[in-house]
Amino acid sequence: MAERLDGGPILDAGCLLVLPGGVDSHCHIEQLQEGGGADEETFTTGSTAALAGGTTSVVTFSTQFKGGGILLPLAEYRRRAAAGAMVDYAFHQIVTDPTDAVLRDELPQAVASGIRSFKAFLTYDPLRLDDRQYLEVLSAARRLGCLVTVHCENYDAIAWRSAALLADGRTVPKYHAWSRPAVVEREATHRAIALAELVDTPIEVFHVSCPEAAEEIARAQARGVKVWGETCPQYFALTAADMDRPGFEGAKFMCSPAPRDAAAQAGLWDAIRMGTLSVISSDHSGWSYGGERGKRSAGPDAPFTAIPNGVPGLQARLPLLWSLGVATGRLTPSDFVRLTATQPAALFGLASKGRIAPGADADLVLWDPHRRTRLTNATQQHAIDYTPYDGMEVTGWPVATLRRGAVVMRDDRVQAAPGSGRYLPVAPYDLIRPRGALPDGFDAATFGAG
Ligand code: URP
Ligand code: ZN
Ligand code: ZN
User: CA-CA distance, 355 to 361, in Å (whole number)?
Assistant: First the structure.
């Protein structure tokens, strides 16, 4: 390290690229669990993985449990983040039970505390909203100036197919993909967009896994609807065939929507090129293979319906995308930065993040575009006991990470104090302003429960 004229340290980037710190706008960290406790990935371990992977800001999830409210879990979640985080963070609010009290009293308070995006699940038993409830969440978001992120899969179609698969004795992990083929995602994506259009609420479709869903987004974008699409590295690095590995190993690759095939991957690259999909997040999900709440918690022969969904990828996100996108010539380095930092920051109102510019925080990554690394779980600094990318060689690696101007990772060593991450309260911002286009000009949202 050389000396600066004012005596401070100089970090010599040499031949490395200087990129804005990554912004992961969809990751599950220390998420509270129904019945007590939280995800195995804590804010401290998750921050370590993020910084080691070149990510300096995250948007994680405060959750509501059906029958409960929003503010109590939010207070606990904020306490945990403030104590443990080493990356800067904002929250999405999961809404599972949009009662009058939640819509009228609690969501406005959550928004006043700096939350400006909600997550609506159209599937998963403990989380799902029916269409009427989804409309209420969209309406509340419209009134409060928020964006709604949506998990798009058809609940009843999955339940119906799963029951038939189990009845036929098809229980092993590979049937997870059979329970939710692309049409199930396409239908829910179409419906999520159509209902958002009815209310005039901007939405982002989370974790798009197939071109069929991307086509629904592209069609809506073409008619001016404010809908954005996100995808994740697992949909490029994994396929449904991974869930068919011997024994129970396939469980390591189970996430929802399910990884598809090479043709779907090609379609997703096209959708990125067209700008239909503009954000790449990790959807990091904190389930180990073993452990009390892990993939094998319902036993080594558990049917696919009893295996927790989700794969870890907070640290691997940027190396995987550089490797599969930039090193193969599919993306330029500028595309990479836009997809993984600039656009997620802009879409979620993180004004000081995702770019290198006067007035922005000096969150930087020194990136070696040529370094080759064979991924194993030992290379991943998360709390999870496996990586689905075990044995994969990636090109591109973060050599140093700076958070607000200070070096917090160098040569894979993270040095930051738990609690040194800052909460990023999100103020109103233009990008998610509704279009002002309502069928018949009638604004039903203003007559809603709130
Ligand atoms: O399988 C997944 N994606 N698990 C995480 C939760 C979610 O749906 O985002
Ligand atoms: Zn989801
Ligand atoms: Zn998720």
Answer: 8
